[in-house]
């Protein structure tokens, strides 16, 4: 019995002192294996009387499980320590940069165009397009700009031949849409696209630029609806606090026609360099579709009405991002393009 | 259109308004005032008399002047050559603010100077309005100028402000001062009184004068002989009006022709009657000649130009400029007045070709109201009688007619309110029509209006609706959203595809670019997958922008070169755009990759911009649209080996349709476009839209484990890896689910003319766990097939 107690104390002390997993395994073999001191003690059992044997056996077994548990606990402790040492050794320099996928950007004109498309898609518009090499018929005639009209000045248009030209405005798309839908109602389209004019390229002029127009034709479409729609657009594009104002203007394909100003998004309307001190920025031309235009497309202008509006995408992008030279859009300098990670 | 406040004041009372207030009101009504221009400016000015003027002792040009201002006399040092004792002058006293700065009392070469004696230029008067002696010296006022007057600018009639009005093409009627006055009166709601000269030109005795035209481009020509006029200086109001309009005063008669043009919009021409002895004037075209006009320049006249002739000889370029020999001079005793209409397109073409733009030609180009010639003739006669002692009037002769029928419109107030979305009272609409001089009257529920001849822009109800809302003000317009049946907003297939590609490619690190559609000869010659026949502009602006492009890559390469020249080496980009040929429109996608696409050097990650990366990008993109597997076929490039490296490029097909070409740029092409090496692609997106994508369908995932085997093969260098993979797949039947190349090697330990390819083959079955035996059987089979078909040996 004393021997057992001694063995137990000795075993527990050794386990406690054990510093690595390999020696711990040796202790396990020693104490719990087939040839250790415990087995030796067990061998002494045959010398005991029948009555003493169960109590002795029980004590030996208790001691075995005690030592076994001590070994397991010690192992867990040593394993945790070893793991910690290993993890410590694996420490990396987190300040070092690794593979950061290079993500490129959308062209700012496409970014703005997509933004405008999306906000009108949300209002139930579809996106319509048309050919850039366009017929005089859709670019001018159908837009209520007959031959000899000063607006058709040869100066402004890239003609290909007597009938064909590079479209000078996205209005040509509208005219094709009117013809396509006629006589169905309603029409609700947004028409983005490249357009071309005979301009010398400089900081504010470009022979190629991008327009987006909207057209709504229905049974009771009013000029107030135009105002509400454009106010919605201005707020989405330039911030919720924006207000718009209409100024009378003239386009051949609308009557009445207006220029649309948005209160300046930089100064809020107090006047600054961007709005040239006026508090307003001109961004759109708009109006009610001219009855002649509806008639030419086969609509009865006494039974329906519509509004149309158009904006220059370059101009909107220049205003939003503070771009000073329209040529940047077509030079495609990567240092310019990488700025436009998102629409703001 | 330039109209001054004083000019407006002739017709309506605007004395209580500043020029800025007037400008704001008419701008709001649609006639945008682009600028205000003071005829002169200066504060703290006073009229004084130079009492003594002696030379400054320390200067060869300065004078010491004692200037009397009535209640005081000040010493002013003046350097003007024309200063002298006894003249009346304008002095700017200390504290005066002039366009050039503020005047202070000071000391000039040791002598006190309390102000500055001014020239008109120093007071901001446009030098073009000044005579040479006025430009070079101080202004010498008339002897009776009031000493001590504190407003010398008003004394000179220079206290005026010009409104520079930008007119929309429908409102060119406002080129006429009278129309501008009516418009301003309507906007301000003030009554307007225009000079009434109607019938003034009816006076006249029998005449010899004959006027005619041999061309339809001159529909109306009025002529009138006035045998006696007195040439003299114009009255002050005329000079001021002309100065405010930027026209130089010449003499009373010439000035009257200009005044009438400014007032009515109708250009007039006065001929000296003695220069046209035949008393015959004919308008002609089809005349080819040279002609020296009033400006002394010889112009070449072509067939389409309109020429005024007498006895067959040119006496003026119609509507643009008269001739020197018939001009009004100091000794002119009698005149012939011309008031005519010419076709605006003709005047525009001639004016542009001759590069000769005059006050008259500008007005003709913009169109003149149909009755302007009569009004101008009446007004000219009235003014000539009043200011040039006109006498000996002969009857007016007329060629052609004005073809004018008055326009009357009946409009419905309820329809107008419906169009605008407003609730404007009928009475208010009527009132606006009255202000616009449309003579409104009620016809039942409707308003009937009579359009004045000047308002050629008012034809239909919508025009009247616009007049009403712009005069009432757009701030009265409510803000609503359209009430209509619901519509579905969506992108079509093409638009969705574009957006998908854009987000995919920018995610890969490819920049979205936009280059010009118009291309040069070189760019057209280098078209890739280009369409023909190429579309050419009728009259291009430059050699660089002559054609409508049929391919994107050449212009995209120019943008690449631009970036490379600026040390942007790692450039990857793409562009999607429509391209054209006669009668054809296609949408293309072009890609260019240079140097390295992605990298992290210390991690040994480098994705090079090479053929294989480009191929991978294209295949990933195609898979996005349901084109993968056997539907995508890559074949050696036999289509275009001029722009592409003949052995490092390929054609890619969707089924039988050629989608595009991709690969390394040909070194010669790279040189031509000044780019360092690059890989590029031009793809025809129509092929993707035309072919049906496969349906997305779920295939059950095998429940049984897969086994991989690696094998390294030695094959001939020219053996295509695709053939190896095909062979493995074919002989492996349904048990081989994947074959992947993981290494390609040539060099040491591999015989010349051979290469080593290492592949990983995945075996899996859908209905059982494959045993080693089964796999070995298949493995042996595919090795045999590789050996027989491709002479491939296990390494």
Question: What attributes characterize this protein structure?
Answer:
heterodimer, A: 344 residues, alpha+beta, BirA Bifunctional Protein, domain 2, 2 domains, 7-stranded mixed sheet, 12 helices, 19% strand, rod-shaped, B: Phenylalanyl-tRNA Synthetase, Chain B, domain 1, OB fold (Dihydrolipoamide Acetyltransferase, E2P), Phenylalanyl-tRNA Synthetase, Chain B, domain 3, 21 helices, elongated
Brief synopsis:
With 344 residues, chain A is of the alpha+beta class. Chain A is built from 12 helices and 9 strands.
Write up this protein:
Chain A: One of its GO terms (biological process) is phenylalanyl-tRNA aminoacylation. The complex is a heterodimer of chains A (344) and B (795). With 344 residues, chain A is of the alpha+beta class. Chain A contains 12 helices and 9 strands. In chain A, strand 6 (244-251) and strand 7 form a beta hairpin. The model of chain A has no long low-confidence stretch (mean pLDDT 91). Chain B is of the alpha+beta class and 795 residues long. Chain B contains 21 helices and 43 strands. Chain B is elongated, with a radius of gyration of 42 Å. The model of chain B has no long low-confidence stretch (mean pLDDT 93). At the A-B interface, helix 5, strand 1, strand 4, strand 5 and helix 8 of A face helix 8, helix 11, helix 13, helix 14 and strand 28 of B.
The CATH class assignment of the largest domain in chain B is Alpha Beta
Instruction: Give the largest interface pair and sizes.
Output: A-B, 82 and 92 residues
Helix tally of chain A?
12
The CATH architecture term of the largest domain in chain A is: 2-Layer Sandwich
Oligomer: heterodimer
**What amount of the residues of chain A lies in strands?**
15-25%
SSE pattern of chain A, N- to C-terminal: HHHHHEEHEHEEHEEEHEHHH
Binding site for Mg(2+) (chain B): 457, 463, 466-467
Domain FDX-ACB (chain B): 702-795
EC number (chain B): 6.1.1.20
Organism (chain B): Copranaerobaculum intestinale
